[in-house]
Amino acid sequence: METLYEKLSALQESTNRMNSVIESLETGLMMVDRDGLIKVVNHAFGSMFGLPVDQMLGQHYDVYLSAYNLSPLLLESMETNRPVRLEMPLFYPQERIVEANLTPIQENDQQSGLVVVFRDLTAFRHLEELRKDFVANVSHELKTPLTSIVGFTETLLDGARTDPDTCKEFLQIIYKEGLRLQRLVADLLDLSKIESKQVPIKMDIVSVQMVVHDVVETLIEQMQAKNLRLLTDVAPLMVKMDTDCVRQILMNLLANAMNYTPIGGKVTVKVKQDDPYWIVQVMDTGIGIPEKDQPRIFERFYRVDKARSRNSGGTGLGLAIVKHLVELQHGEIEVESTVGKGSVFTVRFPLEYSEV
Ligand SMILES: Nc1ncnc2c1ncn2[C@@H]1O[C@H](COP(=O)(O)OP(=O)(O)OP(=O)(O)O)[C@@H](O)[C@H]1O
Ligand SMILES: [Mg+2]
């Protein structure tokens, strides 16, 4: 037969187990009895509200929750004996959005208290906002060129085509906007592939000088047409990299340097070793980026000057793609820039990924 001692220690064990479970929860949990006295409260709850859980046990919930306008809710749930759900913002100790679930508990057909569970929805709501913004941005970006294609085609059909000069001019606009759409869709597909990690990384040991040389070759004519000087200062490094990725990163950074540097300016590509990294820098003497915009230029569709970027055919996705490609290879990217003087984009790749 089980002794009293055995029973007590089994009970103690079960209580300890229950306490560990409650403490390990990421959701905030509180339990009050029918008089509103706090019987259980976990640390997640404390850190969510910035409250001292050790002092809360045995106190009335009102002492701690009235500041959050929660007391009437607890009262309502207890009085009506119904669960209550509500989403609310918290401003202290951190800005968060939390969901509160209040569930009355019954014992022997009698109301014996309330369990209150708080879930942190901040990250979830933030993602939802990002998705909404993204859809709104994409729709807008698609609508602009489409409107102009449809508009100019209509005007041509309505008779403008009979004048050869107008006809040519309008067709050129339609062609240009068509190209924009094509680029936009290609960039979006690229981005979504990279984001969903569908791009396999293929690391080879390659000469950086060769990769830079290849990219520079493809851009040199456009640079010359804009009377830009292109300088390279590339250390003779053999590093492990995904060549296509690095090429695309360079292409995008150089295209920006070119687009945002006025005629007569200078663009420099520098590659050097700086243990434990190898570093690629693209510098220009262009228009620069205001400090307040600098943290945002890697966001999808973010452009400092929409009109200027649109004129150069930009979709605002270039740097977002670059950032993802850099991160795929465990690198980091940062920008330093002064308005009117120029910008420096620095990409840092860990050498451990490139050791032979
Ligand atoms: N070298 C630079 N000098 C000045 N501004 C820059 C430079 N690089 C980027 N920017 C700013 O950052 C914004 C975002 O650049 P990003 O490359 O993502 O888009 P984009 O060049 O407008 O379009 P695209 O998708 O064709 O690259 C640009 O619109 C521009 O305002
Ligand atoms: Mg760009």
From TrEMBL:
GO biological process: cellular response to phosphate starvation; regulation of DNA-templated transcription
Histidine kinase domain residues: 137-353
Domain of life: Bacteria
CDD domains: HATPase, HisKA, PAS
Domain PAS positions: 14-59
Bilayer topology: Multi-pass membrane protein
Catalysed reactions, semicolon-separated: ATP + protein L-histidine = ADP + protein N-phospho-L-histidine
Keyword vocabulary terms for this entry: ATP-binding, Cell membrane, Kinase, Membrane, Nucleotide-binding, Phosphoprotein, Transferase, Two-component regulatory system
Record flagged with keyword Metal-binding: no
Gene3D superfamilies referenced in this protein's UniProt entry, alphabetically: 1.10.287.130, Histidine kinase-like ATPase, C-terminal domain (3.30.565.10), PAS domain (3.30.450.20)
Pfam families reported in the protein's UniProt record: HATPase_c (PF02518), HisKA (PF00512), PAS (PF00989)
UniProt-recorded name of the protein: histidine kinase
Lineage, top ranks: Bacteria, Bacillati, Bacillota, Bacilli, Bacillales
